Amino acid sequence: MENKENQCLFQYDTLKINVNELKSSTELKEYLTEWGADYSALDDFCEEYQEKHGNQLYWHYPHSDDKHNGLYFVMCSDGVLCLPYDQMDTEYFEYFELEDARLLEPESIEYFIEDWVWFSADLVNAMKAMQIWMSKKE
């Protein structure tokens, strides 16, 4: 069994972060409720992570989960918060649906990984076919 210190360590690329030093999903949702549930507010909330770790600790998943147009995954002290969105504009970008925000389980992450691999492979194959077709036209 892993010791408690390793259970709190998030490792990504060259980053090693003690998640206990991050803010909770509740703090994030409260901040977004107060300052606007949009990408601009998320970016402001995570600015200190960028300064401290060189990474904002959120990732955009611009693909539908069959309920929303896209998602953001945000590292929090209590897990990975999924922030779904359906609308966006050019000023504040994505507008989050906070009532559907949730902490993810490992199985959910696995679903998103499999979905993304399928989506990106299909897109790459289509783009390669387009490239071949366009080359024949020249």
List the topology elements.
Elements: H1 4-7, E1 9-12, E2 15-18, H2 25-35, H3 39-45, H4 47-53, E3 58-61, E4 70-76, E5 79-89, E6 93-96, E7 102-103, H5 106-137
Antiparallel strand pairs: 1-2, 3-4, 4-5, 5-6, 5-7
Summarize the structure.
This protein is α+β, with helices and mostly antiparallel strands and 138 residues long. It has five helices and seven strands.
How would you sum up this structure, described in words?
There is one protein chain. The chain is of the alpha+beta class and 138 residues long. It has 2 domains: 4-104, no CATH class; 105-138. The protein contains 5 helices and 7 strands; from the N terminus they run H-E-E-H-H-H-E-E-E-E-E-H. It has helices spanning 4-7, 25-35, 39-45, 47-53, 106-137; strands at residues 9-12, 15-18, 58-61, 70-76, 79-89, 93-96, 102-103. The strands form 2 sheets. Strands 3, 4, 5, 6 and 7 form a 5-stranded antiparallel beta sheet that branches. The chain is globular, with a radius of gyration of 18 Å. The relative contact order is 0.13. The mean pLDDT is 93.
